[in-house]
Amino acid sequence: MELIFREDAYACECNATVTAVDDRGIWLDRTIFYPEGGGQPGDMGTLTTEAGAVIPIANTIKVDGADTSVCVPGDSSVLPAVGQRVTAKIDWERRHKLMRMHTAMHLLCSAVPAGVTGGQVGLDKSRLDFDVGEITLVKDEIQAKLDQMLKTAADVEYRWIDDAELDANPELVRTMSVQPPRGSGKIRLVAIGDNLDLQPCGGTHVANLAEIGRIIVGKIENKGRRNRRVNISLENK
Is the pLDDT confidence value at 186 over 70? Predict the structure, then answer.
């Protein structure tokens, strides 16, 4: 399966062939639909057949490993036949907001000097949980760091390394509960600017920080002796 979103997060439409249809969803030979994972929700959108039938896609999931992206149709959808050609189109407004949010989460991760124990990318609000130890998180200080990073309008780029390179640089992995998928021969790094942030991630991101808009630091919640949850939202653009 060709995962177009992994190389080009801005591809919002593509032609594809249906390779399988089962109780899990619709399988395509190539796809722009990002499957839920890494805290990011799966894409929604449509598949349109050559005859003009429109099949709504309510979610996208991973099945049988990291290199799959299976479209979950709406409950009343008429399913396509195997071998049928379709045009896939994502809900771009929703996807782009998730891209802005996901990149904002990487900046938040960089702004807080602690390991990440969990997180969730949302359309209106996102959050990261940190194992802070003896560190006290100050909302205004985090806000100032994020504001400064956004002022750089830095580019966001992808780099690829193999398992051995990741093993040699364990500090790249900031998430304590989730490890990057291995076994495919390569691992994608998301690099923000020259030194703002660098870590493994398979999600979709904006190409430049200027697309995000202002990040607003919300409530910092106490989730245990060492765990703190930092909530963020984005100003409307």
Answer: yes
